[in-house]
Amino acid sequence: MKRALAIVIFVAACGGKSTNKPAEPMPGHDEHGEMAGMPPELGKFHDLLAPRYHAEKGPKRMADTCGAMADFKAAADALNKATPPAKANVAAWQQENKELAEALTGMETVCKGTDQAAFDQAFEHMHHEFEEIVEAGQGKAEGPEGKEEKGGY
To answer: What is the mean pLDDT of residues 54-61?
Structure first.
């Protein structure tokens, strides 16, 4: 019995097909799946945002992000001018682009100061608005009662 158990353990550990899967993305951060079919401008904004957003909170993160405000504004402007994806909720796409621009204006104001808590709050808001654009690009939008809806108008 012990020998049979040892063989089963050995075969499971060394033989057969690999059961290793790639690491699952963090919930809410399926960048590759979310970005499929999206305009390249969305990916460019994401590539600018992601390393700063996921950096350790603190003065360096604030300095790096505030130092890139011109790049953020240019990327948001390009995103606003981009053609919405075919499956997008166009009205939501346009509204969320407007809200991202407003969030960036708020970030610029916060970046003129040194209030870390205000920066963290403004940066979280900007990130949220970006996520809303991604959802609008997927055809999702908030309904009148806050329930998620699919489709266009």
So the answer is: 96
